[in-house]
Amino acid sequence: MPILTKAPRGTGDVLPGESSKIRFVESTMLETAECFGFKEIRTPGFEHTELFNRSVGDTTDIVQKEMYTFNDKGGRSVTLKPEGTAGAVRAFIEHGLFNEQMPVKLSYVTPAYRYEKPQSGRLREFHQFGVECFGAATPAADAEVISLGKQIFDFFGVKDLRLEINSIGCPECRKKYQDALKSYFSEKEDKLCGTCKGRLNRNPMRILDCKSPICSEIASHAPVILDYLCDECREHFELVQKYLNAMEIEFTVNPSIVRGLDYYTRTVFEFVTGSLGAQSAVCAGGRYDGLTEELGGNPTPACGFALGIERFMLLLQAENIELPPENPIDLYIASMSPEGNILAAKLASDIRNEGVTCLFDTVNRSLKAQMKFAGKTGALFTVVLGDDEIKAGKAKVKYMADGSETEIGLDDFAENFMQISIGKAVAEFDGGNDFDLSSFLGNM
Ligand code: HAM
Predict the structure, then answer these.
(1) What are 105-124's pLDDT values in tens digits?
(2) Which atom of ligand 1 is nearest the CA belonging to 270?
(3) What is the distance in A from the centroid of ligand 1 to the CA of 305?
(4) Which residues contact 176 (CB under 8 A, 6 or more apart)?
(5) pTM of the entire predicted model
(6) CA-CA to 392 of 20 to 30 Å: which in 4, 98, 134, 425?
(7) Collapsed DSSP state (helix, strand, coil) of residue 343
(8) What separation in Å is there between the alpha carbon of 397 and the centre of ligand 1?
Protein backbone atom coordinates (compact mmCIF):
# COMPACT_ATOMS: atom_id res chain seq x y z
CA MET A 1 0.00 0.00 0.00
CA PRO A 2 1.85 3.11 -1.21
CA ILE A 3 0.21 5.31 1.44
CA LEU A 4 2.09 3.37 4.11
CA THR A 5 5.45 3.56 2.40
CA LYS A 6 5.38 7.02 0.90
CA ALA A 7 5.80 10.24 2.89
CA PRO A 8 3.03 12.85 2.34
CA ARG A 9 3.52 15.16 -0.66
CA GLY A 10 5.74 18.12 0.12
CA THR A 11 7.44 16.43 3.07
CA GLY A 12 10.73 14.59 3.10
CA ASP A 13 12.92 12.29 5.15
CA VAL A 14 16.44 13.24 6.10
CA LEU A 15 18.54 10.11 5.87
CA PRO A 16 21.77 9.27 7.70
CA GLY A 17 24.60 11.01 5.89
CA GLU A 18 22.48 14.09 5.21
CA SER A 19 21.31 14.51 8.82
CA SER A 20 24.80 15.19 10.19
CA LYS A 21 25.21 17.92 7.55
CA ILE A 22 21.93 19.57 8.50
CA ARG A 23 22.86 19.32 12.18
CA PHE A 24 26.14 21.06 11.42
CA VAL A 25 24.37 23.79 9.44
CA GLU A 26 21.72 24.40 12.09
CA SER A 27 24.14 24.44 15.01
CA THR A 28 26.49 26.77 13.11
CA MET A 29 23.57 29.16 12.56
CA LEU A 30 22.50 29.05 16.22
CA GLU A 31 26.10 29.52 17.37
CA THR A 32 26.66 32.43 14.99
CA ALA A 33 23.46 34.01 16.36
CA GLU A 34 24.84 33.47 19.86
CA CYS A 35 27.83 35.66 18.93
CA PHE A 36 25.26 38.42 18.33
CA GLY A 37 23.61 37.80 21.73
CA PHE A 38 20.66 35.69 20.50
CA LYS A 39 19.50 32.89 22.84
CA GLU A 40 17.54 29.89 21.60
CA ILE A 41 13.80 29.63 22.24
CA ARG A 42 11.57 26.63 21.48
CA THR A 43 7.86 27.17 20.97
CA PRO A 44 5.09 24.64 20.28
CA GLY A 45 4.54 23.10 16.86
CA PHE A 46 0.93 24.29 16.88
CA GLU A 47 -0.77 27.37 18.26
CA HIS A 48 -4.30 28.76 18.48
CA THR A 49 -5.35 29.55 14.91
CA GLU A 50 -6.27 33.10 15.95
CA LEU A 51 -2.57 33.83 16.64
CA PHE A 52 -1.69 33.46 12.95
CA ASN A 53 -4.87 35.16 11.71
CA ARG A 54 -3.94 38.21 13.77
CA SER A 55 -0.18 38.23 13.11
CA VAL A 56 0.47 36.85 9.63
CA GLY A 57 -2.81 38.50 8.60
CA ASP A 58 -6.14 37.12 7.42
CA THR A 59 -5.79 38.54 3.91
CA THR A 60 -2.44 36.84 3.25
CA ASP A 61 -2.00 33.75 1.09
CA ILE A 62 -0.59 31.93 4.11
CA VAL A 63 -3.75 32.39 6.19
CA GLN A 64 -6.25 32.22 3.33
CA LYS A 65 -4.83 29.22 1.50
CA GLU A 66 -1.90 27.54 3.16
CA MET A 67 -2.44 26.83 6.84
CA TYR A 68 -2.86 23.35 8.31
CA THR A 69 -5.82 24.21 10.53
CA PHE A 70 -8.00 21.70 12.33
CA ASN A 71 -10.21 21.35 15.38
CA ASP A 72 -8.59 19.28 18.11
CA LYS A 73 -10.61 16.73 20.04
CA GLY A 74 -11.70 19.47 22.44
CA GLY A 75 -13.18 21.41 19.52
CA ARG A 76 -10.53 24.20 19.57
CA SER A 77 -9.18 25.48 16.29
CA VAL A 78 -5.41 24.98 16.18
CA THR A 79 -2.88 25.47 13.38
CA LEU A 80 0.51 23.90 12.71
CA LYS A 81 2.84 26.88 12.71
CA PRO A 82 3.42 28.27 9.21
CA GLU A 83 6.38 30.36 10.46
CA GLY A 84 8.31 31.08 13.65
CA THR A 85 7.73 34.75 14.45
CA ALA A 86 4.16 34.61 15.80
CA GLY A 87 4.99 31.91 18.37
CA ALA A 88 8.11 33.79 19.49
CA VAL A 89 6.09 36.99 20.01
CA ARG A 90 3.37 35.07 21.87
CA ALA A 91 6.02 33.51 24.14
CA PHE A 92 7.70 36.91 24.65
CA ILE A 93 4.39 38.28 25.98
CA GLU A 94 3.26 35.16 27.86
CA HIS A 95 6.49 34.75 29.84
CA GLY A 96 7.01 38.43 30.56
CA LEU A 97 10.31 38.50 28.66
CA PHE A 98 9.64 42.24 28.23
CA ASN A 99 10.71 42.59 31.90
CA GLU A 100 14.26 41.64 30.97
CA GLN A 101 16.98 43.97 29.74
CA MET A 102 16.22 45.10 26.20
CA PRO A 103 16.89 44.12 23.56
CA VAL A 104 15.67 40.58 24.13
CA LYS A 105 17.19 38.47 21.36
CA LEU A 106 15.70 35.08 20.50
CA SER A 107 16.81 32.48 17.97
CA TYR A 108 15.18 29.23 16.87
CA VAL A 109 15.19 26.33 14.47
CA THR A 110 11.67 25.11 13.87
CA PRO A 111 9.62 23.03 11.47
CA ALA A 112 6.96 25.05 9.63
CA TYR A 113 3.95 23.98 7.60
CA ARG A 114 2.32 25.55 4.56
CA TYR A 115 -0.07 23.85 2.17
CA GLU A 116 1.68 25.05 -1.00
CA LYS A 117 2.16 23.43 -4.39
CA PRO A 118 5.38 21.50 -3.77
CA GLN A 119 8.38 21.96 -6.04
CA SER A 120 12.14 22.12 -5.58
CA GLY A 121 12.78 24.41 -2.57
CA ARG A 122 9.07 24.71 -1.79
CA LEU A 123 7.74 22.16 0.67
CA ARG A 124 4.68 21.65 2.84
CA GLU A 125 6.85 20.83 5.83
CA PHE A 126 10.08 22.79 5.92
CA HIS A 127 12.44 24.18 8.55
CA GLN A 128 13.39 27.70 9.44
CA PHE A 129 16.32 29.07 11.34
CA GLY A 130 15.18 32.45 12.63
CA VAL A 131 16.04 35.31 14.94
CA GLU A 132 13.80 37.91 16.57
CA CYS A 133 15.14 41.00 18.32
CA PHE A 134 12.68 42.74 20.68
CA GLY A 135 12.86 46.21 22.16
CA ALA A 136 15.22 47.95 19.74
CA ALA A 137 13.65 50.57 17.48
CA THR A 138 16.92 51.82 16.02
CA PRO A 139 18.14 51.33 12.43
CA ALA A 140 21.22 49.79 14.06
CA ALA A 141 19.08 46.82 15.13
CA ASP A 142 17.78 46.25 11.57
CA ALA A 143 21.31 46.44 10.23
CA GLU A 144 22.67 44.12 12.92
CA VAL A 145 20.06 41.47 12.14
CA ILE A 146 20.82 41.76 8.41
CA SER A 147 24.54 41.47 9.14
CA LEU A 148 23.91 38.23 11.05
CA GLY A 149 22.22 36.77 7.96
CA LYS A 150 25.13 37.92 5.83
CA GLN A 151 27.68 36.45 8.24
CA ILE A 152 25.99 33.06 8.03
CA PHE A 153 26.08 33.03 4.23
CA ASP A 154 29.71 34.19 4.30
CA PHE A 155 30.72 31.50 6.81
CA PHE A 156 29.59 28.81 4.41
CA GLY A 157 31.13 30.61 1.44
CA VAL A 158 27.87 31.17 -0.48
CA LYS A 159 28.62 33.30 -3.54
CA ASP A 160 25.45 33.69 -5.59
CA LEU A 161 23.55 35.95 -3.23
CA ARG A 162 22.03 39.43 -3.33
CA LEU A 163 20.63 41.42 -0.47
CA GLU A 164 17.54 43.42 -1.42
CA ILE A 165 15.98 45.85 1.00
CA ASN A 166 12.94 48.10 1.07
CA SER A 167 10.89 50.11 3.53
CA ILE A 168 7.16 49.62 3.70
CA GLY A 169 6.67 52.48 6.14
CA CYS A 170 4.56 52.74 9.27
CA PRO A 171 0.75 52.65 9.58
CA GLU A 172 0.74 56.44 9.11
CA CYS A 173 2.47 56.60 5.73
CA ARG A 174 0.90 53.30 4.74
CA LYS A 175 -2.59 54.86 4.92
CA LYS A 176 -1.79 57.26 2.06
CA TYR A 177 -0.11 54.48 0.13
CA GLN A 178 -3.10 52.12 0.57
CA ASP A 179 -5.35 54.87 -0.83
CA ALA A 180 -3.07 55.29 -3.85
CA LEU A 181 -3.06 51.52 -4.41
CA LYS A 182 -6.83 51.31 -4.03
CA SER A 183 -7.43 53.86 -6.75
CA TYR A 184 -4.78 52.26 -9.02
CA PHE A 185 -6.15 48.72 -8.66
CA SER A 186 -9.83 49.81 -8.74
CA GLU A 187 -9.36 50.90 -12.35
CA LYS A 188 -8.21 47.36 -13.19
CA GLU A 189 -10.51 45.49 -10.83
CA ASP A 190 -12.16 43.34 -13.51
CA LYS A 191 -8.77 41.86 -14.50
CA LEU A 192 -7.74 40.90 -10.92
CA CYS A 193 -8.08 37.31 -9.65
CA GLY A 194 -10.97 36.50 -7.29
CA THR A 195 -8.75 36.60 -4.17
CA CYS A 196 -7.33 40.01 -5.11
CA LYS A 197 -10.78 41.44 -5.81
CA GLY A 198 -11.54 40.60 -2.17
CA ARG A 199 -8.26 42.22 -1.07
CA LEU A 200 -8.91 45.47 -2.91
CA ASN A 201 -10.84 47.14 -0.12
CA ARG A 202 -9.46 45.24 2.86
CA ASN A 203 -5.71 45.25 2.14
CA PRO A 204 -4.65 46.33 -1.38
CA MET A 205 -0.93 45.89 -0.52
CA ARG A 206 -1.52 42.13 -0.56
CA ILE A 207 -2.27 42.34 -4.30
CA LEU A 208 1.40 43.28 -4.77
CA ASP A 209 2.30 39.84 -3.46
CA CYS A 210 -0.17 37.82 -5.57
CA LYS A 211 1.46 34.99 -7.52
CA SER A 212 -1.10 35.01 -10.39
CA PRO A 213 0.68 36.20 -13.59
CA ILE A 214 -2.01 38.77 -14.48
CA CYS A 215 -2.12 40.28 -10.98
CA SER A 216 1.70 40.43 -10.82
CA GLU A 217 1.84 42.14 -14.22
CA ILE A 218 -0.69 44.75 -13.06
CA ALA A 219 1.15 45.08 -9.72
CA SER A 220 4.46 45.73 -11.48
CA HIS A 221 3.17 49.17 -12.59
CA ALA A 222 1.54 50.09 -9.26
CA PRO A 223 2.67 53.09 -7.17
CA VAL A 224 5.70 52.31 -4.97
CA ILE A 225 5.72 52.75 -1.20
CA LEU A 226 9.07 54.58 -1.16
CA ASP A 227 7.28 57.60 -2.68
CA TYR A 228 4.89 57.71 0.28
CA LEU A 229 7.23 57.31 3.29
CA CYS A 230 6.84 59.84 6.11
CA ASP A 231 9.93 61.75 7.26
CA GLU A 232 10.66 59.41 10.21
CA CYS A 233 10.38 56.27 8.09
CA ARG A 234 12.52 57.79 5.34
CA GLU A 235 15.18 58.77 7.85
CA HIS A 236 15.08 55.30 9.44
CA PHE A 237 15.54 53.68 6.03
CA GLU A 238 18.43 56.00 5.14
CA LEU A 239 20.16 55.18 8.41
CA VAL A 240 19.75 51.43 7.87
CA GLN A 241 21.56 51.93 4.57
CA LYS A 242 24.27 53.97 6.27
CA TYR A 243 24.88 51.16 8.77
CA LEU A 244 24.98 48.56 6.00
CA ASN A 245 27.47 50.67 4.04
CA ALA A 246 29.62 51.08 7.15
CA MET A 247 29.60 47.29 7.61
CA GLU A 248 30.49 46.89 3.93
CA ILE A 249 27.35 44.86 3.24
CA GLU A 250 26.29 45.28 -0.35
CA PHE A 251 22.58 45.69 -1.08
CA THR A 252 20.13 47.01 -3.61
CA VAL A 253 16.92 48.86 -2.82
CA ASN A 254 14.05 46.93 -4.37
CA PRO A 255 10.81 48.90 -3.95
CA SER A 256 8.73 45.90 -4.98
CA ILE A 257 9.55 43.85 -1.85
CA VAL A 258 6.42 43.93 0.31
CA ARG A 259 6.67 40.44 1.93
CA GLY A 260 3.86 37.93 2.19
CA LEU A 261 3.06 38.57 5.85
CA ASP A 262 1.09 41.50 7.23
CA TYR A 263 3.04 42.35 10.36
CA TYR A 264 5.94 44.25 8.79
CA THR A 265 6.65 47.94 9.29
CA ARG A 266 9.53 49.95 7.84
CA THR A 267 12.53 47.79 6.85
CA VAL A 268 11.95 44.58 4.90
CA PHE A 269 14.67 42.55 3.24
CA GLU A 270 15.42 39.36 1.35
CA PHE A 271 18.61 37.49 0.58
CA VAL A 272 17.99 36.13 -2.91
CA THR A 273 19.98 33.77 -5.09
CA GLY A 274 20.00 33.01 -8.78
CA SER A 275 20.86 29.36 -8.09
CA LEU A 276 17.43 28.09 -7.03
CA GLY A 277 15.08 29.06 -9.85
CA ALA A 278 11.71 30.38 -8.71
CA GLN A 279 12.36 29.84 -4.99
CA SER A 280 15.01 32.53 -4.95
CA ALA A 281 14.44 33.95 -1.44
CA VAL A 282 16.59 31.95 0.95
CA CYS A 283 16.35 34.26 3.91
CA ALA A 284 13.86 37.04 4.56
CA GLY A 285 12.61 39.29 7.28
CA GLY A 286 12.18 42.79 8.51
CA ARG A 287 10.86 45.05 11.24
CA TYR A 288 7.49 44.49 12.89
CA ASP A 289 6.99 47.28 15.41
CA GLY A 290 3.23 46.83 15.84
CA LEU A 291 2.95 43.06 16.27
CA THR A 292 3.61 42.67 20.00
CA GLU A 293 0.91 45.22 20.81
CA GLU A 294 -1.45 43.70 18.24
CA LEU A 295 -1.15 40.38 20.10
CA GLY A 296 -1.88 41.92 23.49
CA GLY A 297 1.57 42.96 24.76
CA ASN A 298 3.05 46.36 25.47
CA PRO A 299 4.16 48.31 22.39
CA THR A 300 7.56 46.78 21.57
CA PRO A 301 9.57 47.45 18.42
CA ALA A 302 11.07 44.29 16.94
CA CYS A 303 12.85 42.91 13.90
CA GLY A 304 14.11 39.57 12.68
CA PHE A 305 14.42 37.13 9.82
CA ALA A 306 13.98 33.48 8.94
CA LEU A 307 16.16 31.38 6.68
CA GLY A 308 14.78 28.25 5.02
CA ILE A 309 17.05 25.33 5.90
CA GLU A 310 16.03 23.19 2.89
CA ARG A 311 16.60 26.08 0.46
CA PHE A 312 19.93 26.76 2.15
CA MET A 313 20.98 23.11 1.70
CA LEU A 314 19.96 23.26 -1.99
CA LEU A 315 22.01 26.42 -2.37
CA LEU A 316 25.11 24.80 -0.83
CA GLN A 317 24.62 21.87 -3.19
CA ALA A 318 24.20 24.16 -6.22
CA GLU A 319 27.45 25.91 -5.31
CA ASN A 320 29.30 22.63 -4.59
CA ILE A 321 30.02 23.74 -1.05
CA GLU A 322 31.31 20.78 0.98
CA LEU A 323 30.23 20.20 4.57
CA PRO A 324 32.18 18.15 7.13
CA PRO A 325 31.59 14.39 6.76
CA GLU A 326 29.92 12.29 9.49
CA ASN A 327 32.05 11.40 12.49
CA PRO A 328 33.92 8.15 11.77
CA ILE A 329 33.63 4.94 13.80
CA ASP A 330 36.69 5.07 16.05
CA LEU A 331 36.87 1.43 17.08
CA TYR A 332 35.37 -1.92 16.11
CA ILE A 333 35.71 -4.68 18.73
CA ALA A 334 35.51 -8.10 17.12
CA SER A 335 34.95 -11.23 19.19
CA MET A 336 35.24 -14.97 18.53
CA SER A 337 33.10 -16.56 21.26
CA PRO A 338 30.09 -15.79 23.45
CA GLU A 339 32.49 -14.99 26.31
CA GLY A 340 34.50 -12.66 24.05
CA ASN A 341 31.29 -10.96 22.93
CA ILE A 342 30.28 -10.23 26.53
CA LEU A 343 33.72 -8.72 27.12
CA ALA A 344 33.33 -6.71 23.88
CA ALA A 345 30.04 -5.29 25.22
CA LYS A 346 31.72 -4.28 28.48
CA LEU A 347 34.73 -2.67 26.76
CA ALA A 348 32.47 -0.86 24.29
CA SER A 349 30.43 0.51 27.16
CA ASP A 350 33.59 1.72 29.00
CA ILE A 351 35.05 3.33 25.93
CA ARG A 352 31.82 5.04 24.84
CA ASN A 353 31.90 6.78 28.23
CA GLU A 354 35.04 8.49 26.93
CA GLY A 355 33.09 9.84 23.96
CA VAL A 356 34.57 7.29 21.55
CA THR A 357 32.39 5.88 18.76
CA CYS A 358 32.63 2.13 19.15
CA LEU A 359 30.79 -0.86 17.65
CA PHE A 360 30.80 -4.57 18.48
CA ASP A 361 28.92 -7.54 17.03
CA THR A 362 25.22 -7.85 17.88
CA VAL A 363 24.12 -10.01 14.96
CA ASN A 364 26.33 -13.11 15.46
CA ARG A 365 28.62 -12.56 12.48
CA SER A 366 31.64 -14.81 11.94
CA LEU A 367 35.01 -13.19 12.67
CA LYS A 368 35.65 -12.82 8.93
CA ALA A 369 32.28 -11.13 8.44
CA GLN A 370 32.87 -8.90 11.45
CA MET A 371 36.17 -7.66 9.98
CA LYS A 372 34.52 -7.10 6.60
CA PHE A 373 31.78 -5.13 8.32
CA ALA A 374 34.36 -3.09 10.29
CA GLY A 375 36.05 -2.27 6.98
CA LYS A 376 32.75 -1.12 5.47
CA THR A 377 32.02 1.17 8.42
CA GLY A 378 35.45 2.76 7.92
CA ALA A 379 36.43 2.03 11.56
CA LEU A 380 39.74 3.74 12.32
CA PHE A 381 40.88 1.04 14.76
CA THR A 382 39.96 -2.62 15.27
CA VAL A 383 40.70 -5.12 18.00
CA VAL A 384 39.97 -8.86 18.07
CA LEU A 385 39.07 -10.56 21.38
CA GLY A 386 40.02 -14.24 20.88
CA ASP A 387 40.52 -16.88 23.60
CA ASP A 388 44.27 -16.13 23.77
CA GLU A 389 43.71 -12.42 24.25
CA ILE A 390 41.12 -12.99 26.96
CA LYS A 391 43.44 -15.41 28.77
CA ALA A 392 46.45 -13.08 28.52
CA GLY A 393 44.39 -9.99 29.42
CA LYS A 394 45.94 -8.16 26.44
CA ALA A 395 44.92 -7.52 22.84
CA LYS A 396 46.38 -5.85 19.76
CA VAL A 397 44.68 -2.67 18.61
CA LYS A 398 45.17 -2.20 14.87
CA TYR A 399 45.30 1.23 13.25
CA MET A 400 43.59 0.52 9.94
CA ALA A 401 45.21 3.38 8.02
CA ASP A 402 48.71 1.82 8.14
CA GLY A 403 48.11 -1.64 9.67
CA SER A 404 50.29 -0.85 12.71
CA GLU A 405 49.39 -2.72 15.90
CA THR A 406 49.77 -1.79 19.56
CA GLU A 407 49.23 -4.30 22.36
CA ILE A 408 47.26 -2.95 25.29
CA GLY A 409 45.96 -4.38 28.58
CA LEU A 410 42.26 -5.20 28.72
CA ASP A 411 41.93 -4.10 32.37
CA ASP A 412 42.48 -0.44 31.55
CA PHE A 413 41.32 -0.80 27.97
CA ALA A 414 39.50 2.52 27.66
CA GLU A 415 42.39 4.55 29.09
CA ASN A 416 44.98 2.68 27.00
CA PHE A 417 42.94 3.05 23.83
CA MET A 418 42.50 6.78 24.38
CA GLN A 419 46.27 7.13 24.60
CA ILE A 420 46.78 5.32 21.29
CA SER A 421 44.06 7.13 19.41
CA ILE A 422 45.03 10.60 20.63
CA GLY A 423 48.67 9.74 19.83
CA LYS A 424 47.76 8.75 16.26
CA ALA A 425 45.60 11.85 15.78
CA VAL A 426 48.33 14.19 17.02
CA ALA A 427 51.00 12.36 14.98
CA GLU A 428 48.91 12.75 11.82
CA PHE A 429 48.36 16.39 12.59
CA ASP A 430 52.07 16.71 13.28
CA GLY A 431 53.07 15.21 9.94
CA GLY A 432 53.51 11.58 10.94
CA ASN A 433 55.95 11.91 13.86
CA ASP A 434 55.47 9.40 16.67
CA PHE A 435 53.81 10.78 19.71
CA ASP A 436 53.91 9.58 23.31
CA LEU A 437 51.02 10.98 25.32
CA SER A 438 52.52 10.19 28.75
CA SER A 439 55.74 12.01 28.01
CA PHE A 440 53.71 14.82 26.43
CA LEU A 441 51.55 15.10 29.58
CA GLY A 442 54.64 14.63 31.82
CA ASN A 443 56.35 17.57 30.15
CA MET A 444 53.43 19.90 30.74
P1 HAM B 1 8.96 33.96 4.95
O2 HAM B 1 9.51 34.80 3.86
O3 HAM B 1 7.55 33.55 4.81
O4 HAM B 1 9.16 34.79 6.30
O5 HAM B 1 9.84 32.68 5.13
C6 HAM B 1 11.22 32.78 5.42
C7 HAM B 1 11.99 31.74 4.65
O8 HAM B 1 11.45 30.45 4.88
C9 HAM B 1 11.95 31.91 3.14
O10 HAM B 1 12.89 32.86 2.70
C11 HAM B 1 12.30 30.51 2.67
O12 HAM B 1 13.70 30.31 2.70
C13 HAM B 1 11.66 29.64 3.72
N14 HAM B 1 10.36 29.11 3.24
C15 HAM B 1 9.17 29.75 3.24
N16 HAM B 1 8.21 28.94 2.72
C17 HAM B 1 8.82 27.79 2.36
C18 HAM B 1 8.37 26.56 1.78
N19 HAM B 1 7.09 26.34 1.47
N20 HAM B 1 9.29 25.58 1.56
C21 HAM B 1 10.59 25.76 1.88
N22 HAM B 1 11.07 26.90 2.46
C23 HAM B 1 10.19 27.90 2.69
C24 HAM B 1 8.79 34.32 7.53
O25 HAM B 1 8.43 33.20 7.76
C26 HAM B 1 8.98 35.33 8.62
N27 HAM B 1 8.53 34.74 9.88
C28 HAM B 1 10.43 35.78 8.70
C29 HAM B 1 10.67 36.75 9.81
C30 HAM B 1 11.19 36.49 11.02
N31 HAM B 1 10.39 38.04 9.75
C32 HAM B 1 10.73 38.59 10.92
N33 HAM B 1 11.19 37.65 11.69
Answers:
(1) 999 999 999 999 999 999 99
(2) 10
(3) 8
(4) 228
(5) 0.93
(6) 425
(7) helix
(8) 51
